[in-house]
Design a protein that fits this description.
Layout lengths: L2 E5 L2 E4 L4 E8 L7 E7 L6 E7 L5 E3 L7 E6 L4 E6 L8 E8 L20 E2 L3 E6 L1
Parallel strand pairs: 2-11
Antiparallel strand pairs: 1-3, 3-8, 4-5, 4-9, 5-6, 7-8, 9-10, 9-11
C-alpha cells in the first residue's frame, strides 16, 4: 500500500523556520518526483516545490525561491521542505504528493511539474505563521 506521511507543521512566528517531512512507503523511491503543495483557507491548492529522487533536481514556485529548500534522503524514503523566513502568507495546510514515474520532473524544457498528475497524497500538515 502506498502511503505518504507529512509532518513537521506547527505554529511559528513570522521570520521563523520549519522543516516539513514527507515519509513515503509502498513504492520504489529510486526515481520518483515528490511535490509539496499548500492550500490556504479560501484559496486554491498550489504546488510550491518538487524534487526528483534519482538526481536531486528541484523546482520551486517563484514566490518561494530563496526561502524554501527541498531535499531528499533516499535511504529513508523521505523528502524534506525547509521553510525559512516564514511569512503570514505561508499559513496553509501543506501536502506532499508523489508522481511515481518522475515524469513531472522529466521534461527537458523545464515544464511546470505541477501540470502533471500526482497519484498519491499525504494527509497534510498545518503551518500557521503568527505576525
Amino acid at each position: 500500500e502506498v502511503q505518504l506521511q507529512a509532518s513537521g507543521g506547527g505554529l511559528v512566528q513570522a521570520g521563523g523556520s520549519l522543516r516539513l517531512s514527507c515519509a513515503a512507503s509502498g513504492f520504489t523511491f529510486r526515481d520518483v518526483a515528490i511535490g509539496w503543495f499548500r492550500q490556504a483557507p479560501g484559496k486554491k491548492r498550489e504546488g510550491v516545490s518538487c524534487i526528483r529522487s534519482s538526481d536531486g533536481s528541484t523546482y520551486y514556485l517563484d514566490s518561494v525561491k530563496g526561502r524554501f529548500t527541498i531535499s531528499s534522503d533516499n535511504a529513508k524514503n523521505t523528502v524534506y521542505l525547509q521553510i525559512d523566513s516564514l511569512k503570514s502568507e505561508d499559513t496553509a495546510v501543506y501536502y506532499c504528493a508523489a508522481n511515481p514515474t518522475a515524469q513531472a520532473m522529466g521534461d527537458p524544457r523545464g515544464r511546470d511539474p505541477f501540470e502533471y498528475e500526482f497519484d498519491y497524497w499525504g494527509q497534510g500538515t498545518q503551518v500557521t505563521v503568527s505576525s
